Amino acid sequence: MTQTTMIPPEKLFAQVLDPTSRANPYPLYARLREKPISVQEDGTYVVSTYREISLLLHDPRISSDERKGTHPARTQTETAASATPAFIFTDPPEHTRLRRLLMHQFTPQRIADMQEYIEQTVNALLDARKQEKQLDVVQDFAYPLPVMVICRLLGVPPEDEPRFRGWSSALVRTLDPTESLSEAEIQQAMQSRTQLLEYMKQLSEARRARPQNDLFSALVAGDDPDGRLSDPDRLATMQLLLIAGHETTVNLITNSMLTLLRHPDVFDRLRRNPDLMIPAVEEVLRYEPPVQFRTRTTLTDIPIAGVTIPKGARVVLLLASGSRDPARFVDPDRFWPERDDNEHLGFGGGDHYCVGAPLARREVVPALKALTRRLQAPRLVTDPPPYRRNAALRGPEHLQIAFDHISD
Ligand code: HEM
């Protein structure tokens, strides 16, 4: 990476997006925090401090609807993501209604009921590697898990999972408006979207005819007093659950394992006291979060921290920087699961706070408990590991771990 101190402030975010910064973007965030809000060369406003990010996450004058922006980044996401935007890309009152109709069925009980299946799946994935002395945490473990879980939750039959996995990987990158996809990648995403929608339509019909005890059937039946999701809205919502919950969960498992292996003292404490895994995962969400930033559009001029962000501007909320802000967290660059004040921004905040947070926690905590308990003498093969290109959904492409053996 170029010496961070040499980079002019208006070029810092371009350097964040540069793949050479992926392994460690945190010194760049520290530079950005010298001013809470900085305008970049292309007119983007980057917000890097905890206080200002929190204020804007709760500010109705800022929009998640890319159709309201004037900046060029909108087209790629909009075309590739969906013709009917999923509710992550909408504002109140539309957002409030769509989110509520989902939450009426995506209940804590439905998530709690997944516990046994999650534990079985985690152990089966490790059992499959028992003859080996090395595994790739991403490909062999973290990548399959969330798709298997979401398929089970929605009610997608296990034999269709491989197809689901392919569509999900092609679509997930369209969630990042800063990533420039090639024409071929956009085509592939569009094709995956069409196939996924077609598949979901057929599943809707099947569940309408013969309801089962799954989320898909519940949403098709729609016994909510506020009405039912229309067919296009339901399909967009299902697609959103699949793609918003996939790579994020993969990255949380992988970032956690990487961080734990870099901190052998914490690793040892976790083996002795597995209950510490709950705060340890929260600490990873602060320290190495899967979602580094989200983008928004201003609906009006917004004066904040001595700057006026003009109407129609693209705003980057640098969540990962806010969670490392020394004005908010004691010793923010220290990985410290026992910290007692950890209101991180890993799941966002305000109206769009992650709806999948309870499910993600229920997946990632058992996954890491199993990895730390069953892998004997685990060590990193390469540090830093190779990273994916995506700067917003940040995580390793592979994470090779060597070990003596996998216990029962
Ligand atoms: C570790 C895993 C996860 C992380 C770090 C994560 C992070 C986030 C963040 C930061 C947001 C806020 C987006 C914004 O403000 O624009 C968000 C929203 C969302 N997440 Fe997650 N997420 C995770 C897992 C999941 C899972 C498992 C699901 C679904 C099964 C899910 C579904 C969603 C949805 C639907 C939204 C949009 C909420 C809205 O716009 O109201 N996420 N997530």
From TrEMBL:
Name of one Pfam family that matches: p450
CDD domains found in the cross-reference section: CYP164-like
Region (Disordered): 61-82
PROSITE patterns from the UniProt entry: CYTOCHROME_P450
Highest taxon of source: Bacteria
Compositionally skewed regions (Polar residues) per UniProt: 73-82
Keywords: Heme, Iron, Metal-binding, Monooxygenase, Oxidoreductase
Coiled-coil residue spans: none
InterPro entries assigned: Cyt_P450 (IPR001128), Cyt_P450_B (IPR002397), Cyt_P450_CS (IPR017972), Cyt_P450_sf (IPR036396)
Family: Belongs to the cytochrome P450 family.
Protein name: Cytochrome P450
